[in-house]
Amino acid sequence: MSRTSVIPFGPQHAAFLEPFHLKLQVEEEVVVGAEMSFGYNHRGMEYAMAQDFKRTQFLCERVCGICSFHHSSAYVQTMERLFGIEAPERAKLVRMIMMEAQRLTSHLLALGHIAETVGYENMFMQFFREREEVMTLVNRISGGRVHYSMNAIGGIRKDVTYEGLKDIGETMDRLEPRLLDLRSIVRKDRTLRKRLIGVGVLSKEAAFDWCTVGPTSRGSGLPHDIRLTGFDGYGVNGVKFRPIYYDEGDCYARTMVRMDEVIQSVDLIRQGINLMRDGPFLNAVKGNPPAADAYGRVEAPRGELMYWVRGKNEVQLDRIKLRTPALVNVPAVSAMIKGARVADVGPITVSVDPCICCTDR
Amino acid sequence: MSMIVSSLKNLLSKPDTVRYPFERTDIPSNNRGRVVWDMERCIWCRLCEKNCPTKAIVTDKAAKTQTITRVRCIQCRTCVDVCPTNTIAMEPVYSEPGPAREVHTYAVGMKKGEYTVGLMPLSERDETRLRKR
């Protein structure tokens, strides 16, 4: 007769980049249930953000390091709706290009992380080498490796020069063949396939029930992408885009969604550069946010990121609410790991790309 | 390409990393780094002090000094953008980590790039915060 025992997984664990705790109920090698606890990284961001709407655009970038530009884009988009203005086309395209560049860095980090978790250090190094190319590119364009500080309410703070755009295009030309090589390795490689296929299956219905977003839901066959509807930059300007999704719902499907989206991001950056026209890049706002509410959403690397803001005719905001993608994706892990072996818990958890900075904030 | 071919290629190619403290890394010229003042041009408009999101800058018009708390500075480039006379510039360096709660003071009459180092004072903001507790 088997007896249930409890194994703690985390808060400090070699597979996790950030602290969160999984309490696994185990029968021999098989996980039968799990409890999660968060809050090791809580910083009281929502309260701090409501203190001054101008300073918030720098603070919201600091919620998370690997989707910082998505956070500030979602915030300025929300504030633009609150003020009733619209950013110029050029600013929207610059935001789109930088968001895709950050998606490249984030997805390459997630892919490297999953390669490292299954014990594939060689591939981890290769993903991080390509990531460094994008990191130095965004450093050249914006002046910062992690926090770009390019957004302003009503547009962007500083225009991207012609040389900058040329630099982005040339880097993408250099990067694309290497990324295609990596994709063919991930597709064919026996080690990765044996380790990830059929592990941590989340069915389409379960993905819908757990409200998963982003690559986690697209790996389960839900073609749900905010880039189609949410952010102004995509679609309205003639950017051709189609969400990538796989039906299998296992760790390998989620990894392949990320791998294909990396190639898609290169394509979207090229489309953005081609659509770029000279023109104004900032419609500056005056005064304090009116006493109304507005929301904005973008597709962050991990899924739908939503900001909701209510002003009160003062410098302070009445309330600001973030709904981050990791917050809804990470609980779905408890549905994925039922029936999995203890050795697979690491790759399953990492395959949803948990960002605890976003979750706890 | 398979993993074996890729591994062999990497084995025969040069490393992508640099031996950082001994070799220079290519930091781009527009990298947001350390904030420096050219005090000859300052007109004491206090725009940098008002616009700094972390309140790292303190302008003293009477003593003719600009004081920056380095640990508070988040390298957002707001002060450089708002300065009407291009007094403030950013050096393209990576910010050095450190626990020191020290302030750097730029005063009129100093040479370019020169500053005095002092300890971080308990500003009014900190005092009110302490009193609340």
Q: Could you explain how this protein is built, in words?
A:
With 361 residues, chain A is an alpha+beta fold. Chain A has one domain: Orthogonal Bundle (Cytochrome-c3 Hydrogenase, chain B). Chain A has 14 helices and 8 strands. In chain A, a hairpin with a 2-residue loop joins strand 4 (151-152) and strand 5 (155-156). In chain A, helix 3 packs antiparallel against helix 4 and helix 5 runs antiparallel to helix 6. The radius of gyration of chain A is 21 Å and the shape is globular. The model of chain A has no long low-confidence stretch (mean pLDDT 86). Chain B is α+β, with helices and mostly antiparallel strands and 133 residues long. Chain B has one domain (28-132): Alpha-Beta Plaits, CATH 3.30.70. Chain B has a 4-stranded antiparallel sheet, with no helix packed on it. Chain B has a two-stranded antiparallel sheet with strand order 1-4. Chain B is elongated and about 70 Å long. The N and C termini of chain B lie far apart (63 Å). Classes of the chains: A alpha+beta (361), B alpha+beta (133). Chain A binds chain B through residues 52, 54-55, 58-59, 62, 122-123, 126, 129, 132, 136, 139-140, 143-144, 147, 149, 157-158, 181, 184-185, 188-189, 191, and chain B through 1-3, 6-7, 10, 16, 26-28, 30-32, 53-54, 74-78, 81.
